[in-house]
């Protein structure tokens, strides 16, 4: 069996840790592995398959001899080091937003568009967490019934904003009576002017605002979905909201299909889709929730209902672990698909 | 000035307490007031305008001589006592769902359809909390641009499920590390078979499920909106979700209008609407959130955006205190409107 030299860039972060766990769990065919990070995190130790590794400070030469480099250390790090890795013969799978909308860079969710991988010129982008789980759930509907319009409202966990956001939520949640006046330094965006408490609150801002009144997170869902699904005419309307949830993004997705299937046909299509698990039994109160999806690989879909006023309209409630399928797992699956397709 | 004999049915509950506060704050023209409850709560004392009152157990005779009775003690109590109050000459303003869809009973949000009050036959219904704030925000758009379709996803606070739900959230939130295994006895529905932790979670179930896969809460939003807005052809698609928020419902509302106004025209319509406050300045991170809306009377609207693929589509983020405008304040405003219109 062919094995590969793998580098993890951003190995000490929340997503980097998940990447390491996925590589180990899935028994990825590794020849040698190297863990990279900024100078701040270099020197830390990481356990992998019973061996201890020291995290090294990333420099361009770190990528000499690397076959596959998984990046998740922020957009500016990707912009700086991904071209250096490619120059040295590595294929970069980048989890940041740096290259996602670049026409030369495939944006891939293997369940949806793995054949796009072949067109890579060194970099393959991993989509935004909230986009990945939505397109996994909608691809089977697109294939079987045609997809005309998506209206999505998200319910997103703080772990997408890093370990500091998790600690902020934890500290605020412990002081119930002080909720409106809780100290806030991280959310909604660390570098933003104003910060708001997240415990016992809902913040309708994820990432900064663009000039058109949408946030970057909302624009990612709109633009990435069209790119992954190869459909510029697909209408996507998105509102992204941060919640006092640690891990697990939920999405209330309303779709207008080209056809008018029965709700049973929609459920069957979801149940048969790869990477997706139907979890939908209202009579027994069975539906997905972020607390139950934490740590799991699947995209869970429930609350499937036909619009009472429009036979082509359907509601879905889509939940997945934003660090697993929303980030680390999808990156590793892209690498596996490359191998399977003989691209690396 | 004419004054009225007023009864509060369910005076010791969360909404009852807010009703008392609103009557006092708004200087409602009261001749005499009587506080009623079940035998379990009878005997408790209530302060009102500097005087101490004892809560009495409700019996049919409690309504002798009463002009206006505000009910908020559960549907079965309303079914039992509202007809008794009407028989004795009172007008009942009922905050439960018992009579809302009854053709003989006006369902009223004064900012939208106060002229319906005149058609009452003794009972006037107060709509569901999540419906009230949505129709307040959408009425000005309906009037100026026509309203074709609503797709709403809610972010609802636990206080809508009573004081036990608030305590459950408080206890669970204090034990961060145990979140997935937290003890749950109240949510999503106290009488339901299964209960789930609400802290650090999102539960896509409010009230019980109906046979069509929708919850009663979702069906309330669908049916009540059509009734209040006098438009059976208005398409309403709703998903209702309970969050770890104490007070303040948020709603991600997508509307398709008949016309295609500019986003500025939509903002102006919202800003000019009664009971509604425009809070929309993304450049300065100004948008409504439940923690800031708690205890306030207004319905706050922000994040107003035009659909990038459809000039008739608009997003709104609508937040209000579910116990104030969503319940107690609206009931008191119905009473004030009755007086203003000379109906009582």
UniProtKB/TrEMBL annotation, chains A, B:
Active site per UniProt: 129, 249
Top-level taxon of the source organism: Bacteria
Transmembrane segments: none
Pathway: Amino-acid biosynthesis; L-lysine biosynthesis via DAP pathway; (S)-tetrahydrodipicolinate from L-aspartate: step 2/4; Amino-acid biosynthesis; L-threonine biosynthesis; L-threonine from L-aspartate: step 2/5; Amino-acid biosynthesis; L-methionine biosynthesis via de novo pathway; L-homoserine from L-aspartate: step 2/3
A GO term for molecular function: aspartate-semialdehyde dehydrogenase activity
Annotated keywords: Amino-acid biosynthesis, Diaminopimelate biosynthesis, Lysine biosynthesis, Methionine biosynthesis, NADP, Oxidoreductase, Threonine biosynthesis
Residue positions binding phosphate: 100
Enzyme's top EC category: oxidoreductase
Catalytic activity: L-aspartate 4-semialdehyde + phosphate + NADP(+) = 4-phospho-L-aspartate + NADPH + H(+)
Enzyme Commission number(s) of this protein: 1.2.1.11
Keyword Chloroplast attached: no
Sites where the protein binds NADP(+): 12-15, 40-41, 159-160, 322
Record text on subunit structure and interactions: Homodimer.
PANTHER family (UniProt xref): ASPARTATE-SEMIALDEHYDE DEHYDROGENASE (PTHR46278:SF2), DEHYDROGENASE, PUTATIVE-RELATED (PTHR46278)
NCBIfam families, A to Z: asd_B, PRK14874.1
Name listed for the protein in its UniProt record: Aspartate-semialdehyde dehydrogenase
Organism: Planococcus shenhongbingii
């Amino acid at each position: 069996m062919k094995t590969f030299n793998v580098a993890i860039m951003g190995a000490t972060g929340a997503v980097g840790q998940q990447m390491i766990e996925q590589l180990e769990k899935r028994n990825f065919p590794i020849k040698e592995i190297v863990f990279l990070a900024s100078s701040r995190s270099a020197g830390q130790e990481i356990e992998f398959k019973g061996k201890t590794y020291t995290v090294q400070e990333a420099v361009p030469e770190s990528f000499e001899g690397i076959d596959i480099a998984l990046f998740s250390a922020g957009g500016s790090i990707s912009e700086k080091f991904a071209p250096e890795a490619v120059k040295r013969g590595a294929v970069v799978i980048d989890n940041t937003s740096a290259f996602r909308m670049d026409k030369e860079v495939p944006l891939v969710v293997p369940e949806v568009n793995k054949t796009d991988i072949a067109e890579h010129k060194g970099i393959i982008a991993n989509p935004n967490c909230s986009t990945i789980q939505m397109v996994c759930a909608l691809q089977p509907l697109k294939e079987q019934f045609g997809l005309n319009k998506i209206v999505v409202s998200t319910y997103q966990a703080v772990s997408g904003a890093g370990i500091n956001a998790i600690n902020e939520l934890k500290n605020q949640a412990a002081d119930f009576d002080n909720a409106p006046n809780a100290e806030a330094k991280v959310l909604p965006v660390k570098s933003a002017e104003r910060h708001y408490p997240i415990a016992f609150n809902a913040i309708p801002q994820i990432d900064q605002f663009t000039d058109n009144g949408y946030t970057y997170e909302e624009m990612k869902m709109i633009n990435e979905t069209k790119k992954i699904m190869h459909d510029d005419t697909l209408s996507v309307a998105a509102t992204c909201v941060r919640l006092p949830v640690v891990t697990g993004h939920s999405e209330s997705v309303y779709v207008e299909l080209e056809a008018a299937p029965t709700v049973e046909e929609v459920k069957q299509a979801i149940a048969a889709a790869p990477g997706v698990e139907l979890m939908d039994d209202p009579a027994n109160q069975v539906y997905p929730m972020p607390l139950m999806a934490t740590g799991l690989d699947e995209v869970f879909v429930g609350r499937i209902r036909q619009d009472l006023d429009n036979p082509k309209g359907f509601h879905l409630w889509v939940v997945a672990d934003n660090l697993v399928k929303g980030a680390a797992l999808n990156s590793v699956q892209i690498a596996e698909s490359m191998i399977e397709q003989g691209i690396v």
